[in-house]
């Protein structure tokens, strides 16, 4: 990769890594992709693309964004809204979880539980006949 790319590539945050490890520990690692790039059509969606923090692909189609303090601005909120609408048009449910680091273990468990609940809800609607992922 060229050197200029390093300026634009975002590293995975520690919060993302901790949540991914916890989700795998709870048995939700199947179909899970971390830092998943998604490209959009700018003319139709208003944004070029995004990187999804946690993405469960087909058949679950669920995206989780861990939104830290930079997402509190009005400009970023508008971009986040465009991204959410673009993903929903593609049949992907979007879950945005705001947080202010550093987080306690209790907060991390609550975040993981919220994600688990949303995935279970998606599984109930989309996968009636397929074996379920173990419950949290």
Entry keywords:
5 helices, alpha+beta, Endonuclease, Chain A, four-stranded mixed beta sheet, 43% helix, 136 residues
Describe the protein's architecture and organization:
The chain has helices at residues 5-8, 14-25, 42-45, 74-89, 105-126, and strands spanning 32-39, 49-56, 62-67, 93-98. It is globular, with a radius of gyration of 15 Å. The protein has 136 residues and is α+β, with helices and mostly antiparallel strands. It has a single domain (10-126), classed as Endonuclease, Chain A (3-Layer(aba) Sandwich). Strands 1-2-3-4 form a four-stranded mixed beta sheet, with helices on both faces.
Task: Describe how the helices and strands are arranged.
Blueprint: H1 5-8, H2 14-25, E1 32-39, H3 42-45, E2 49-56, E3 62-67, H4 74-89, E4 93-98, H5 105-126
Parallel strand pairs: 3-4
Antiparallel strand pairs: 1-2, 2-3
Helix pairs in contact: 2-5
Name given to the CATH architecture: 3-Layer(aba) Sandwich
Cα distance spanning the termini = 39 Å
Going by helix content, strand content and strand pairing, the class is: alpha+beta
Radius of gyration: 15 Å
Averaging pLDDT over every residue, what do you get?
A: 82
